[in-house]
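hey m, so remember when u said the tokens were messed up on ur end? i reran from scratch. heres the input so u can diff it against urs
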Amino acid sequence: MKKLKILILIFCLALSVPLGYFVLRTYWSLEQEEISELRYFAVTLFDQMEEELASFVLEEEARPVDQYRYYYAPAQEISAPQSLVPSPLSQPPKKPYILGYFQNDPDGSFQTPLVKSNETIPPERAQLVAQLNKTNSIFNQKRTTVVESGEAKTAEIHAKREREQVSTFADKYLDLSRSKKSSRAYLGQEKSRVEEITPDQAVNLARRDQEQPPPQGWQQQQTRAEQEEPKEAISGVGAPMVGKPSKDKGAVTEGRYAASPIRPPAPLPDSPKLQVEVDPMQSVFINERQIFIFRRIVINNQIFRQGFVLLIDEFLNHLAKEYFSGQPMAAFANLRLSVVDRGEETSSHRSGATVQHANFSLERTFPRPFSFLRATLTCDRIPRSVGRSTLNIMMFVLAFIILIGLFAIYRSAREVLALSERRSRFVSSVTHELKTPLTNIRMYIEMLEQGIARDPEREQEYFRILGSESSRLSRLINNVLEFSKFEKKQTHLDLRDGTLEEVIHEVKEVMQEKLRQEGFSLKVEMEDLPPFKHDREAMIQVLINLMDNSMKFGKSLPSREITLKVWSEQDTARISVSDTGPGIPRHDLRKVFDDFYRVDSDLTRTTGGTGIGLALVKKLVTLMGGTVWADNNDGPGCTITISLPAKRA
């Protein structure tokens, strides 16, 4: 048994090591899948934000160059009547994160589409116009240094690298060449583009008075001073030139708004349209709460800067509320939107769950003109994959099955070894049980041959002993043969209707001499029973085995009594054999009917037996359709009860 335990332990280790490695690798793969899944949705979230920023930039860059004045000239055929209409930017911005639109002229003057030139500023717009004018003044101080710093270039390179990594990851699974081009690719543009505008748009961009549309043939109606200025021929696109800021032009004075006199461009020879150079949108910090996002318009060697003032806090709050706050991801992740100026964070906005120790972090720096914007998604509790629950259940079931299987193998092997040991003891017991009656028979025969029995009474006593030992030997041989038939499944019973009167009568005759020799008294309590099917010889053998078992273990006790009781209960016939012996240990009550099983006690070690008597009883009763069980009495001894099916008339 010890060797069996060692083998089972080695088997468990050999099975658990590869299985444990497989489980750990599977859980690691699931963890990577969960991280990849969260990363995918985080990238999708950032892509949606970038998509809106790109659409926003496209919308701004698509505006006509003269739309930054109160009146502008819509694009139309050159032969059509010329007219000016109010600009869409003449109304306060609907987006809460845009303070307003304005144009910075080449001389640094200030133009806004919110106010007509040379007119009193409406009271409801006075504060807004003043804020825009202040922003223009700050911008005039910074515009000579509006070049990309090292930090901005680094941020742009970082944003480009991030987009390339996402694209490379997607290329493993999708052919993006067939997909619809996203507007996100428009962000981060570095090259200028050339646009064509009409003369009306050009003069409207630089004219003084925006109240009335210019007359046709405005080239011939220029002022003498303007005619005396040297003309600079425009061959394609003019070169950029930063003008010197003016201190008094385009300013808000005494509640009025005055436009600055800007020299209008000359049209190309023999061309109805003019060409202008438009740079991509770029941004410059005004203060910690405002950023000026603008484009440069180069026309006739003059630079106009057109754009809007972005309110940082409102902009960050809009992005978080629009794309994150209402998402299920906000329940377990945290989004941090921050604004970085020259490598230092100036403001930030957080939304979502509180994260103590981040197990996941993904950062995105957006392309220009939003290269100042950085988004970071963190999470300390990554959502579990559905496959993890399935794996847990399957591992639990597999472990349970393996443990049950190993336990069953151990129990089976243990039972086989125990049965082998009992068989070995059975052979030894049968040898002893056969040898004892044979020795007694041989001894008494020799005594009779030698004439030791000198009187007839002693001879009769010897003959009775010989008969008893012969019966004992016969019963033992019959039990062994019957048990062998059961092992080979060759036992056939002859079931017939009847009562147990004849069976009990024959049992009393067979056991009478042995009962007398061992000093036992037999008490029979029998009620009227309806006829039931049973095998007469099998029942005799069963009752003799039970009585013989009671005498074997109770002959050393002072009280020697056996009670045989027969009665009916519902649709069954009950037969019980009770004794006043030592009883059966509680944990052995069920095992005593097993093959070759003997209770391990001092009494059984000194008492002969083969261990097949009660096993044969159970087999015979079961074959007749009944059941048998053992119980200890309230007093000394135990009772073995047999229940057989009986039919009532």
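this time it looks ok to me. The CA atoms of residues 14 and 333 lie 42 Å apart. if urs says something different then somethings off w ur setup not the seq
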